[in-house]
Specification:
By secondary structure, this protein is an alpha+beta fold. It has ten helices and 20 strands.
Length: about 375
């Protein structure tokens, strides 16, 4: 990153202290989804953005979900957006520490959302504070984009990209990548497979039509689709995948069932559409079942040689003092929404490991958390990046 060596001058311990205060406060605010009450954490982020002079916009969504956006300049097309979601999964059993009270032990910060992804949000807030203190972001600017409902239906990201006037030129999503630069992730789609029968007394099955038998025939044919999906490869993101996860039908053993439903998912590669997948599934199911799309979220990929990816890698190398690692994010993310809706190159980069997400005793290395804030700060100060 040419000319970047002095951009972090003045990044003192006060920013590390601020980062840990933000992380502790955010972990202490329960935004489990479900139920999806994100008001407290959304208000905290909005106040933190406003305190450093960002133009704050809050978007209320159905069900208590919130988006919070802070823009460093008056324009609607900032050079870069640092993005993350404010909700977490619930804290189920197995915790040996209080999930909503941040604790530090052995160089690790524990608490629900520490890795996924309130640690990254804290680092972004800290980076924005440093960039503003240094006088950056007043021209073309940057944005902090914190979305709601990512863990459920991605309502926040879907609503956000409907604002066609707000189009950042590049985006970084703070999903936990252990500070590796992940250049994409597969999308996600969910389907209901439905078989319709005719109910009757089980003593006279010839008078009805068994919906479970029809589903069994359809699923037998659909089993081969797993191999079809596995054969569709992306050079960086790997293979698509198909799975049937649940099935339900019938009311009692002495009743011929009149309906049966199965839930299925397909992990979309960039360029694939849920409509095309549903059509293929429907052709295999034939007359025995119908296929309906329930959810569809796109995948995303940015070429590793793209100037934005190279700039992000350079920022990582500047802070860590070693070559940046690149890869592909193994789970679903909001990258597809921003890449498609904004037409922007998008990468995933954040502290912590995806292996710790959604687990009891979720934690994040403090060292990675501190480094993430510096990396984000360097990107905000080094503009334009593309």
């Amino acid at each position: 990153m040419p000319g970047s060596s002095g951009l972090l001058n003045g990044y003192a311990s006060e920013y590390d202290s601020l980062l840990l205060r933000h992380a502790t406060a955010l972990i202490g605010l329960d935004s489990s989804n479900p139920p999806g009450d994100e008001n407290a954490v959304a208000d905290y982020c909005a106040d933190a953005m406003a305190s450093i002079g960002l133009n704050v916009q809050k978007m209320r969504l159905d069900g208590g979900y919130r988006n919070v956006i802070g823009i460093s300049s008056g324009g609607k097309a900032p050079d870069i957006a640092l993005c993350g979601h404010i909700d977490t999964v619930p804290a189920a059993g197995g915790w040996t520490r209080p999930p909503f009270a941040a604790t530090t032990e052995g160089g690790l910060l524990f608490g629900r959302g520490s890795a996924d992804m309130k640690g990254a949000l804290a680092a972004m807030l800290t980076a924005a504070k440093f960039a503003r203190d240094k006088g950056f972001g007043y021209d073309r600017g940057f944005a902090l984009v914190f979305t709601g409902d990512e863990e459920n239906c991605c309502r926040g990201a879907e609503e956000l990209i409907k604002d066609t006037a707000f189009k950042p030129r590049a985006a970084v999503i703070g999903e936990p990548t252990r500070l590796e630069v992940h250049t994409g992730s597969r999308g996600y789609s969910k389907y209901i497979i439905h078989s319709e029968g005719v109910g009757c007394h089980a003593a006279c099955p010839e008078e009805g039509e068994n919906a479970i038998f029809k589903m069994a025939r359809a699923l037998t044919r659909l089993e081969s689709y797993s191999q079809t999906a596995a054969g569709r490869m992306h050079p960086e993101l790997g293979a698509a995948s198909f799975n049937v996860g649940t099935i339900k039908g019938g009311t009692n053993v002495n009743v011929v069932p009149d309906s049966c439903e199965a839930d299925a998912e397909y992990r979309l590669l960039p360029g694939e559409s849920a409509e095309d997948i549903a059509s293929e599934l429907g052709a295999l199911a034939g007359e025995d079942a119908k296929v309906r799309i329930v959810q569809s979220y796109p995948g995303a990929y940015t070429e590793k040689g793209h100037p934005f990816v190279l700039s992000v890698c350079a920022a990582v190398e500047q802070v860590l003092g070693k070559m940046a690692k690149t890869g592909a994010f193994p789970a679903f993310s909001e990258a597809g929404f921003f890449a498609k809706g904004w037409g922007a190159p998008t990468v995933l980069l954040g502290p912590g490991s995806i292996e710790m997400a959604h687990k009891a005793d979720e934690c994040i290395p403090v060292k990675e958390l501190l480094a993430a804030a510096k990396i984000y700060a360097l990107m905000l100060c080094q503009q334009p990046l593309i």
